Amino acid sequence: MRSGTHPVSRPVVFRDRAAGFQLLTLSTLDAQRTVEWEDGATYPVVDVDISSASHPFYTGTSRVADTAGRVERFERRYGRTAAVRP
């Protein structure tokens, strides 16, 4: 195989600060900041907004939207649709 065609894969820590969750995995991302991991080594760190520790689908904490209110608001704004033609 030709050298230099694939990106370099290295250990990187992905950190979700909102959930206090960190994951050490291999990635091709390069980060400027570093963090010391549990084994004492220093790894590049990438901060993410949402991870499996904070996403509602994985945590089971979903919010129920008020769909009845949304339908009524839509009908007030745009009126009722025309009757379906046979």
Automatic annotation (TrEMBL):
<dbReference type="InterPro" id="IPR034704">
    <property type="entry name" value="Ribosomal_bL28/bL31-like_sf"/>
</dbReference>
<dbReference type="GO" id="GO:0006412">
    <property type="term" value="P:translation"/>
</dbReference>
<dbReference type="InterPro" id="IPR027493">
    <property type="entry name" value="Ribosomal_bL31_B"/>
</dbReference>
<comment type="subunit">
    <text>Part of the 50S ribosomal subunit.</text>
</comment>
<dbReference type="InterPro" id="IPR002150">
    <property type="entry name" value="Ribosomal_bL31"/>
</dbReference>
<keyword id="KW-0687">Ribonucleoprotein</keyword>
<dbReference type="GO" id="GO:1990904">
    <property type="term" value="C:ribonucleoprotein complex"/>
</dbReference>
<keyword id="KW-0689">Ribosomal protein</keyword>
<dbReference type="GO" id="GO:0005840">
    <property type="term" value="C:ribosome"/>
</dbReference>
<dbReference type="GO" id="GO:0003735">
    <property type="term" value="F:structural constituent of ribosome"/>
</dbReference>
<dbReference type="InterPro" id="IPR042105">
    <property type="entry name" value="Ribosomal_bL31_sf"/>
</dbReference>
<comment type="similarity">
    <text>Belongs to the bacterial ribosomal protein bL31 family. Type B subfamily.</text>
</comment>
<protein>
    <recommendedName>
        <fullName>Large ribosomal subunit protein bL31B</fullName>
    </recommendedName>
</protein>
<dbReference type="Pfam" id="PF01197">
    <property type="entry name" value="Ribosomal_L31"/>
</dbReference>
